[in-house]
Amino acid sequence: MIKYDELVKEFKSNLERLGYSRNSCYMLPSCVDEFLFFTGETDITGIEQEHINKYHGYIQQRPNKRRPGALSEMMVYHHMYALRLFFNFLEQMQMIRANPMSNMAFSRPQYKEREILTVDEINSLFDAAGNHMERAMLSVFYGCGLRRDEAVRLDVRDVHFKNGLMYIREGKGGRRRVVPMTRKVIRLLRKYYLHQRPSNADKEPFFINLAGHRTSGNRFNNMLKQLIKRAVKEGYLSSEILHRQISLHSLRHSIASHLLENGLSLEYVRDFLGHTCLETTQIYTRINKNQLLAL
Fold first, then answer.
1. Residue 274: CB partners within 8 Å, gap ≥ 6?
2. Quick one: 20 exposed, middle or buried, by C-beta within 10 A (0-12, 13-18, 19+)?
3. How far apart are CA 52 and CA 28, in angstroms?
């Protein structure tokens, strides 16, 4: 009989092979591990829908381990999504005869309205940026529409200044894509690379932290928060922006919306962002156009 901890390790390895992000490869197996402990079953083939329904009820009431209160609706859904992936994996590996999740459905929480910055607000952030690193950060998250993990994994070899192309070798789900860089993006990334990136740091990563190693996603998050506060303090932006949930992903949302507003096709924006289907990209067409300024 295969032990549960071995199953979880195999599941995690499978996620890594499929190209899931580092955070997902940690969080999803952790959710599965909690579920398996909750069931008390010693044989994976003995798990039925009843166990999953009971766990769903439990996880909706379980206290949040990181902060006061219960888990958010999205986090509850995340736990059930982890179980779906896990049992699909077991079925594909022929470790179970019947998949208990096969005909179970759990409602997905509605996403909060996506925070979109206007073109003027984006330009104000560039104006408020105090160094090459901050301008380079804005260039990859807004100018190139990268996800956080994609920017973290970006290597020097992936940025081709001469050809004006950026290679994303490990996008979401392991997908690769090539992103065109505008002249402004090329200029700002080149300035960072030549004048602020330490020459004696790790050779591979494009973005380097103060310790000379690859910049983390949390570091990018903090940089953006500090930049927004400085932009408000120095009068580049209204203090109203401090009450909005602006994140690195907001920059990606913003460039997608701006490209569509400027007349680019859904197909182009889909490929630019690395989406697998047009339905995902179409979310940006439903944003109130009055909130955006023309490019």
1. 147, 168, 171, 172, 175, 177
2. buried
3. 16
11: exposed, middle or buried (C-beta count within 10 Å: 0-12, 13-18, 19+)?
Answer: buried
For residue 205, the 8-state DSSP code is: B
Contacts of 110 (CB under 8 A, 6+ apart): none
Phi-psi label, residue 172: left if phi above 0, alpha if psi -120 to 50, beta otherwise: beta
The domains found in the chain, sorted by start residue, are: 4-92 (1.10.150), 119-291 (1.10.443.10)
Q: Report the alpha-carbon distance of residue 129 to residue 127 in Å, rounded.
A: 6
Nearest Cα to 120, choosing from 238, 278, 10?
238
How remote is the C-alpha of 282 from its chain's centroid? Answer: 18
Could you tell me if 133 and 151 are in contact, meaning their C-beta atoms sit under 8 angstroms apart? no
Q: Please report, for residues 29, 117, 139, 206, 210, the alpha-carbon distance to residue 202 in angstroms, rounded to integers and kept in the order given.
A: 31, 34, 22, 9, 11
pLDDT digits (tens, 9 = 90+) for 173-210: 667 899 999 999 999 999 999 999 987 777 899 999 98
Rounded to two decimals, the pTM is 0.64
The position carrying tokens 């990334």 is: 189
> Which tokens belong to 122?
């984006």
pLDDT at 16: 87
Long-range contacts of 5-9 (CB under 8 A, 24+ apart): 5/33, 7/36, 7/44, 7/90, 7/95, 8/32, 8/33, 8/36
Cα 239 off chain centre by: 27
- pLDDT higher at 277 or 291: 277
Q: Where in the sequence numbering do the catalytic residues fall?
A: 147, 172, 249, 252, 275, 284
